[in-house]
Amino acid sequence: MSLDPLHALQAANRVQPPTKAALAGTVLVAGATGALGQELVRLFAGNRRFAHVRLLAREPVRDGMRGVESCLAPEAPIAEWPPTSAEAAVVAFDPPRLYHDRERAFWAPQPGELPALARWLRSCGVHTLAIVQPHDQGRLPEALKRGLASLDEHAVVACGFERVLLVRSARRPANARLRGPAERLADWMLSTLRYMVPSSEQPVRASKVAELVELALRIAPPGVHVAAPELVWEAAQGEMQAVAARWLGVPG
């Protein structure tokens, strides 16, 4: 059957209904650096669940991805930043990799700036906030892994967000600088103890953490939701949808 050119023109000019991605608004990423930040940007830009992806940057950045734009963070206190607009935001504490020049242009948050950043995000219209906080293996008490671990996090919750997601993902402890042969020998002898760290607190790939954050942004009900390192590890093993649904208390 031949295609009528008139029908083809009419179909091309027909106004399309807004898609789910167009209705999802804007997500702002603070800390689009390191492996995690880059995975978050790739995921948000690739699945088009948000109409726009806005990245906080320290200097002007030429945007090369469709739907991704930079938002300049001036050299001023966060409270004095000009407002922008976004419905959701992700704060990732992942320092830039020195061998990635582009990452140096993006703004990387410091832990002490979290309350001020949260207040600024709330003033910009953000109602859903996800915070990804890596921690050293075995340092957090069990109670704090599952609750609010600091006064800064309490201050964030007090800002009045509709949804707050706290994702605690394990990371390897930083390599200490050893001064002499004796210290290096002692470090080598003690290195066997590192294998005693529970497997559920071993680091997971940044791509899996990004997938969990993106999924939680879509399905999380109102409230404060804390993902302990064990849950992040479990979600990375393959049953992410089921684990996230159980964590957030929604149908799987």
Structure, described:
This protein has 252 residues and is α/β, with parallel strands linked by helices. The chain has one domain (19-248): NAD(P)-binding Rossmann-like Domain (Rossmann fold, 3-Layer(aba) Sandwich). 35% of the residues lie in helices and 16% in strands. It contains 10 helices and 9 strands. It has helices at residues 5-13, 20-23, 34-47, 114-123, 142-146, 151-157, 181-190, 206-219, 229-235, 240-248; strands spanning 26-30, 52-57, 68-72, 88-92, 128-132, 135-136, 163-167, 170-171, 223-227. The protein has a 7-stranded parallel sheet with strand order 3-2-1-4-5-7-9. Helix 4 links the parallel strand 4 (88-92) and strand 5 (128-132). Helix 8 crosses helix 10 (240-248). The longest helix is centred in the first third of the chain and has 14 residues, at 34-47. It is globular and about 55 Å long. The model is unreliable at 1-23 (pLDDT under 50).
Please, how many helices? 10
What is the structural class? alpha/beta
CATH architecture: 3-Layer(aba) Sandwich
| Element string (H = helix, E = strand) | HHEHEEEHEEHHEEHHEHH
Q: Assign the CATH topology.
A: Rossmann fold
In the residues, how many domains can be counted?
1
Shape: globular
CATH classification, class level = Alpha Beta
